[in-house]
Amino acid sequence: MSATPPPARLPDEAATDEQCHDLVSGYDEDGPTAFECGAPLRHTDSGYSCARGHSYTYAAERVAEGWDYASDAVEAELLGRVGVIGVHPGDGRPW
Question: How far is Cα 78 from Cα 90, in angstroms, rounded to an integer?
């Protein structure tokens, strides 16, 4: 039996210095505001995601799959004119 204790975390759960920069709405002493999420990031083959559920897909993957992020319905319509599906950045739903 080994005298070395098991690691506290599995290798893929290891702490990372990278943090999520997605903006999250909140409140401070002046009222409504936005701040960076700050949760740890986990990189994948196609992008990254954070511990609070935010995710991002690399541009090369989006092109290969035929979609892209659209910040509003107008941008989604412009993407649609060139055959690209515009999706909401926050949740991936098509416009």
Answer: 19
Q: What is the pTM of this model?
A: 0.68
Do the beta carbons of residue 49 and residue 16 sit within 8 Å?
A: no
Q: Long-range contacts made by residues 57-61, C-beta under 8 angstroms, separation at least 24?
A: none
Three-state DSSP class for 36? Answer: strand
Q: How does strand 31-36 pair with strand 23-28?
A: antiparallel
Provide the 10 A C-beta neighbour count for residue 47. Answer: 15
Structure tokens at 82: 């060139």
Segments in 1-95 forming alpha helices (H): 59-65, 73-81
Strands 55-57 and 67-69: unpaired
47: helix, strand or coil? strand
pLDDT in tens, 43-80: 999 999 999 999 999 999 999 999 999 999 999 999 99
